[in-house]
Amino acid sequence: MRGGGAIRVQWAACAVAVALAATACGGGSDSGGGGGGAGVVSSSWGDPQNPLEPANTNEVQGGKVLDMLFRGLKRYDAKTGEAKNMLAEKIETTDSQNFTITLKDGWKFSNDEPVTAQSFVDAWNYAADVRNKQNNASFFAAIVGYADVHPASGEPKAKTMSGLVVKDPRTFTVALKQKFSTWPETLGYQAFSPLPKAFFTDHAGWLNKPVGNGPYTVDSYTKGTGMKLRKWDGYPGEDKAQNSGVDLKVYTDNNTAYTDLISGNLDLVDDVPAQQLKNVKDDLGDRYINQPALIIQTLTFPLYDPQWGKEGMEKVRRGISMAVNRDEITKQIFHETRTSAKDWTSPALGDKGGFSATACGEACTFDPAAAKQLIQEGGGLPGGKMTLTSNVDTGSHRDWMDAVCNSINNALGEGPVCTVNPIGTFADFRNQQSSYKLTGPFRSGWQADYPLIQNFLQPLYYTGASSNYGKFSNPDFDRLVDAANQESDAAKATATFGDAQKILAEQMPSIPLWYQNGSAGYSERLSDVSLNQFSVPVYDQIKVS
């Protein structure tokens, strides 16, 4: 998923494609109301793209499971996003480049193995090793020795990063390549999770039934049907599960999931379909959640395709953006759950956090005449046409893709030059996206892991970044991101990221569409249901009556 082996210093965690892949109604259920057994929450879900290795998971469906199975050095507060110590007793540094990490005592994995400093160091070395082909390997690029285990080409020179040293069972040190004062804030991301020895000694067995150190264990998983997680009674953390377990049920149509919720066959839907938004308040009353979230939807251009990436095409990309009537689409389709985008971040960041209501400017303003002129000046659409691609198993993606194409076609007045390419499942879409097979604009959803502007810019647009699926590359953008990452003053760093965003406005590697709220509906037998600010249910705190 990454290109070029470029070094990325990251403030924040990662990508996650926002489209919540749902899939075929999982069918029957355990006994009990709401489709779950006694004390068990049943919730809509979709198959993850990859096996659930922490460093190989960078999409929402797999992330939901990892969030129940693992606890790391830090954990992000569900309401504020603040990175708080979890397994870390303390993280110390005198120079913002060399860190000493001390673990709390008493933590173990659900197979009774102790969680030690070696558990973290082994996991991080595995994640970084190029031979293991982990999607999130570049999150370890700031550590000394990363290039030796993850060269841009060829075989690695070493098996471990020299910047990681175990001092004793509860202590290890980390040497970074350069100063990075906010590096500890990234450590709540799931790629930094510890791994038990069983992961390495019986890898196939572990993949079949992952073992972690979080409040739940995996009971069973059947691809295409669902996963059953059960409360781990021996969990040593304070955030113990308040229910007996969670049954994640695979759906290929979130309308079916919603129907199951209304009929009492499902407890929780965390992606209310657009077709139901006009009825959901009447259907669920105060059991409907609709809140701002750190999510943006964009259309990304395949700049690896010469027809889209050649010089001058930025005018065409800008023109396409101006042909999209965002206000009308969000009003007609999404009913107060989306807001027209004005930059590449999220208003949930706030002005101090880097959100800009003017960054995209005219390029995000509907102007059919100017759109048509810009597209003509840029040489026109490649081959006189364009195709939008997205998965259509959830998120009302087919509805808005049709609306976007209609808006573009009406603006250009040249017939149906914009068409849609619906892909049946999220996993299939992600595979095509991550293998750079798409030849036209494609949906890119981004869900932050905590509120920092870096998280909206670097993973998506930095050269070689792990989620830079359009292969945008701009030396000035990279330089500004590097400078911001090394800046210890948060306000100055945010301003520098703002300068980097101006380059996106000039080049338009993607079209900001709209900011997305988190939405969910739940059954009468549940209480204490909430979404974190990233729109993911806080499963472990849900109570079942």
Concise account of the structure shown:
This protein has 545 residues and is of the alpha+beta class.
Fold and architecture overview:
This protein is α+β, with helices and mostly antiparallel strands. 28% of the residues lie in helices and 19% in strands. It contains 17 helices and 19 strands. The chain has helices at 60-69, 117-128, 146-149, 197-201, 203-208, 254-262, 280-284, 306-309, 313-322, 326-334, 350-353, 368-377, 397-412, 426-434, 454-461, 475-486, 490-507; strands at 40-45, 74-76, 83-85, 88-93, 98-103, 164-168, 171-175, 216-222, 226-231, 245-250, 268-269, 288-300, 338-340, 386-391, 418-423, 442-447, 510-522, 526-527, 543-544. The strands form six sheets. Strands 11, 12, 13, 16 and 17 form a five-stranded antiparallel beta sheet that branches. Helix 9 runs antiparallel to helix 12, helix 15 runs antiparallel to helix 16 (475-486) and helix 16 (475-486) runs antiparallel to helix 17. The chain is globular and about 65 Å long. The two termini are 43 Å apart. The model is unreliable at 1-33 (pLDDT under 50).
Compile the SSE list and pairings.
Layout: E1 40-45, H1 60-69, E2 74-76, E3 83-85, E4 88-93, E5 98-103, H2 117-128, H3 146-149, E6 164-168, E7 171-175, H4 197-201, H5 203-208, E8 216-222, E9 226-231, E10 245-250, H6 254-262, E11 268-269, H7 280-284, E12 288-300, H8 306-309, H9 313-322, H10 326-334, E13 338-340, H11 350-353, H12 368-377, E14 386-391, H13 397-412, E15 418-423, H14 426-434, E16 442-447, H15 454-461, H16 475-486, H17 490-507, E17 510-522, E18 526-527, E19 543-544
